[in-house]
Design goal:
With about 300 residues, this protein is α+β, with helices and mostly antiparallel strands. It has two domains: about 100 residues, Rossmann fold; about 150 residues, Hnrnp arginine n-methyltransferase1, CATH 2.70.160. Helix content is about 25%, strand content about 30%. Strand 2, helix 4 and strand 3 form a beta-alpha-beta unit. The longest helix is centred in the C-terminal third of the chain and has 30 residues. The protein is elongated and about 85 Å long.
Length: about 300
């Protein structure tokens, strides 16, 4: 069942100059004259057109939406690349092509690779033997970053616990509700993906963070950096790698007391696959000790106040 407009996001990506010009620069640096190029999720086709401009002999452009496939066919002809660009209607996770590419372009990326099919699609190509050991991938690497904090999740006088996508142009002065996210930890790089290697979609990691403030953590802010090439990192743009603020089960933290967390997810499996758990029993003990200390301090203060009043 098709629930959302299929051309809206590709249209916005096309108009996003920092994102699209960065990919153009990466393509120009990697695609050589005579190369075979494969693009997954071609959308408007702009990246396939860049590859043709860079001298590719063939560009296989895979797109699941038939309308966009036909638009790319027309645009390839209008720009003189009808003999170079080969639009193919199909699912990037199951498609097969006749030739092994010298360059793979895959921009089916959402922040942390959870909702889109970047990992399953590339994994399928690798398992089919379609990628060569020398195939260059754009982007080549992806670094996932997290910040834990507190969010009110308050909108229009109601509590709405819901994932918040926070693009850099969503300015409260322009009418957007603020996210209300207050960071309690610093940013933490938690995993990397090398798209040139076979990558399991199952994420299972644990790590330690030291809260910078005392409070209740009830949300996590996801961000990322995509390395289109080693020399060309791309963080958040108007349509690429926008931050996500996701609700999680709340827990108390104290400034300077490290906490160990476990994060598991299925990359490409949707936000519902993401799980976060507090791991370290010693951390819990130390947190409880701090809680008890503060409770005792407050009790003693109140007792002293009452004693003084009685005197």
């Amino acid at each position: 069942m098709d629930l959302f407009a299929k051309t809206e996001v590709p249209s916005l990506c096309l108009r996003d100059r920092p994102r699209t010009e960065s990919f153009r620069d990466a393509i120009r640096s990697r695609v050589k004259r005579g190369d075979v190029v494969l693009e997954l999720g071609s959308g408007s086709g702009i990246l396939s057109l860049f590859a043709a401009q860079a001298g590719a002999a063939k560009v296989f452009a895979i797109e699941a939406d038939r309308y966009q496939v036909e638009q790319l066919r027309l645009n390839a002809k209008d720009n003189g690349f009808e003999d170079v660009i080969i639009p193919i209607h199909g699912d990037a996770r199951t498609i097969s092509v006749a030739e092994k590419p010298d360059v793979l372009i895959a921009e089916m990326i959402d922040t942390w690779l959870l909702d889109e099919h970047q990992i399953p699609a590339i994994q399928s190509l690798q398992e089919q033997g379609i990628l060569k050991p020398t195939t260059q991938v754009i982007p080549g690497k992806y670094e996932a970053v997290v910040t834990f904090g507190y969010s009110e999740f308050s909108f229009y006088g109601l509590r709405i616990t819901y994932p918040l996508h926070d693009w850099p142009d969503l300015d409260p002065e322009d009418g957007w509700c603020p996210t209300g996210f207050v960071p309690l930890t610093s940013k933490k790089s938690v995993f990397e993906v090398n798209f040139c290697q076979l990558q399991s979609p199952h994420l299972d990691i644990d790590f330690v963070v030291a809260p910078q403030r005392t409070g209740t953590i009830n949300s996590m802010r996801l961000s990322a950096i995509a390395y289109l090439t080693q020399e060309l990192p791309l963080a958040s743009t108007l349509t690429f790698n926008g931050e996500k603020i996701l609700p999680i089960s709340p827990f108390q933290v104290f400034e300077g007391v490290p906490i160990r967390l476990k994060v598991s997810a299925l990359l490409g499996g949707g936000l519902q696959s993401l799980q976060v758990a507090l791991l370290d029993e010693r951390t819990n003990e130390r947190t409880n000790e701090r809680t008890n200390e503060r409770t005792n301090e407050r009790t003693n203060e109140r007792t002293n106040e009452r004693t003084n009043e009685s005197s």
